[in-house]
Every structure is written in C-alpha cells, then in structure tokens.
Design goal:
About 70% of the residues lie in helices and about 5% in strands. By secondary structure, the chain is mainly alpha-helical. The protein has a two-stranded antiparallel ribbon. Strands 2-3 form a two-stranded antiparallel ribbon. The longest helix has about 35 residues, at about 210-245. It is extended and about 60 Å long.
C-alpha cells in the first residue's frame, strides 16, 4: 500500500495538477486559449454569456462527483482517473514506458491546442477571407494593436497580474473561494469568471476582443518585469546591509 501511495504521488506530479484554479487559468489564459474556445460563434470576440457557458462546461468536468462544488474530493478523483488512464496494464504502478506515453499524449494535445490558436489567429488576420494574409492586413492588425495599447495606457487601465502557472492557479483558487471553505461552488466559480471578464474588458463593452487579450498579456508582462526588478533591488539591499555589518 505504501508503494502504491508513493507511486500515486509521483504520478500526480508527472501527469499535472488539476483543480478549479487550473480551469480558471485555462479559461482566462493570457495566451488566449480558453477565451478562443469560449468564442462559440467564432466572431473573434467573447461575450460574458460565452465566457460563462464555457466556464460551465469546465466546472461540470471538474465536479467529478456532481455535488455542485469543486474541492479536494474532486481533485483526488481526477488524479486517480488520470493515473488509471496512464496505467494501461492496470497493475497499480506506472512504468517508465507508461509515463513516457502519458507525457507524449499531453504534448500531442498541447500541439493540437497551439495549432487551433494559430488557425484562429490566421482567421482574424485574413479579414477578406482570401486564404492568405496580405501585407496590408498585417499592417492593419499591427496598427489596431498599437492603437488599443495607447488607449489603455492613456486611460491607465490594466488587467490584473498573472504569474507562473502553479502560483497563478493557486491564487485564482483562493480568490474564487470567497467563503474560505477550501471548496469552490458554482456560484463562486461564476463570480470569479465575471470578475476576471470585467478586468480584461477594459472598455466595458460587454465583449473581450483580441486587442484586449493582447493588452492583458502586455500588462502582465510589465508587472512581472516590475516584480523581478523589485526582488533584485531587495536582494541587493539585503546584501549591502549584510556587508555593512
């Protein structure tokens, strides 16, 4: 039993972390993956209704026992499911070959998602639906992004910071869990989606455009750079204080 427990723990790290934080991170990813998937009518913008509908699908998948909340029980069930899927011979352990196959499967799925994002981006650039992107279309897209950036800088509006994926997921989980019971209900999940949507929808139009997603990405990059600079300054100050003693 101890061996199986240790194997399960190792497999959980190998197969990835699940949970409400992961779904929120996917749904609101600055890379646009979740938002692009939420664009049900393919018009290049995401409405709040589309965002919530996409979130509802994600919540249903996460709520493994269908009790209306996502908590440790659901996460344990999903980890067990992922382990069982990877444990193709059903012996209760993951061999090196099984772990390699699981990793390759994850990589293949990521490649599919990247291809989907690239296809969606191409569709947005190809405004005349000619099957190719002209220099004029590229220039128009670049100018639109620059204009959107200038408007947001001028208005002082920025999206909230992100962070590394693991820390970002945990922060999202904590923010969504507003009553502090270590579980996220559907009401809390929807409220988190609405709050995040409002932050990215900087012009309060009720939709999130590709330009707004790009602006949110840039804001996060700038904030990450600022935090790194602050940490460097703090470390430098600590070293100087230590040297003066």
């Amino acid at each position: 039993m101890r061996k199986l427990t240790l194997t399960l723990s190792a497999a959980a790290l190998a197969l990835g972390v699940g949970g409400a934080g992961a779904a929120l991170a996917d749904h609101h990813s600055g890379k646009g993956g979740g938002m692009i998937k939420a664009d049900a009518d393919g018009d290049g913008v995401v409405s709040l209704a589309e965002a919530k509908a996409h979130g509802a699908e994600r919540f249903t998948k996460m709520d493994a026992n269908s009790d209306g909340v996502v908590n440790a029980e659901d996460r344990a069930a999903r980890r067990a499911q992922r382990f069982a899927t990877a444990d193709t011979n059903g012996d209760g352990e993951l061999s090196q070959a099984e772990m390699t196959a699981a990793r390759e499967n994850r990589n293949a799925k990521r490649a599919e998602r990247r291809a989907e994002r690239q296809a969606n981006r191409f569709t947005r650039l190809d405004t005349d639906n000619s099957g190719g992107v002209s220099e004029a279309e590229m220039t128009a897209a670049r100018e639109a992004r620059q204009e959107a950036r200038g408007e947001r800088r001028g208005g002082g509006k920025r999206a909230k910071r992100g962070g590394k994926r693991g820390g970002k997921m945990m922060r999202m989980m904590r923010r969504a869990d507003t009553n502090g019971d270590s579980a996220v209900s559907r009401t809390e999940f929807d409220a988190a989606i609405e709050a995040r949507f409002a932050r990215v929808d900087t012009d309060s139009s009720g939709t999130i455009t590709a330009e707004e997603r790009e602006a949110a990405r840039e804001a996060r990059r700038a904030q990450r750079s600022e935090r790194r600079s602050q940490r460097r300054d703090e470390r430098r100050g600590q070293m100087e204080r230590s040297g003066s003693r």
